[in-house]
Specification:
Number of strands: 7
Strand content: 25-35%
Number of helices: 3
Mean pLDDT: 89
Shape: elongated
Strand order of the largest sheet: 1-2-3-4
Oligomer: single chain
């Protein structure tokens, strides 16, 4: 793996906790269906369990990868690729999170993948290595 290849994901403990909550919600909705049948409360709990499952799947797939000359952002069941040369600057703010400013003035907000300040420093260093090399 070259030095520029890095992948940032949600911290493992957070992913495990989210998966556990989703599993408990799903099992609870199944037990409610077996006990009470399909009443409004059971349907509501089952709907919440399904939505939680979809959200959990999205969060587990969410990542930011620095690979070669591009940054790959996977979030919301979508994949977006940006080239290193088009990134003008990297910004991190405690309340707003991590974002990239592109050379055409657009801002791209990155998904929350852990400690934003540390991730911002890593991405800034990756962008700077590209500027020095190119």
């Amino acid at each position: 793996m070259p030095i520029d290849d890095q992948t940032f994901r949600m911290p493992r403990w957070r992913a495990q906790l989210l998966a556990l909550i989703t599993l408990v919600s799903g099992v609870g909705s199944v037990f409610l269906m077996l006990e009470d049948g399909l009443d409004p409360i059971t349907l509501t709990v089952a709907t919440v369990a399904v939505l939680l499952g979809v959200g959990t799947l999205d969060r587990l797939r969410t990542r930011v990868t620095l690979r070669g000359e591009e940054i790959i952002i996977v979030h919301g069941f979508r994949r977006r690729r940006l080239f290193r040369g088009h990134i003008d600057s990297v910004h991190w703010h405690r309340k707003r999170g991590l974002s990239l400013r592109l050379d055409d003035g657009l801002r791209v907000k990155l998904p929350d993948v852990g400690d934003g300040r540390t991730r911002a420093a890593s991405i800034r260093a990756w962008v700077e290595r590209g500027r020095r090399a190119g």
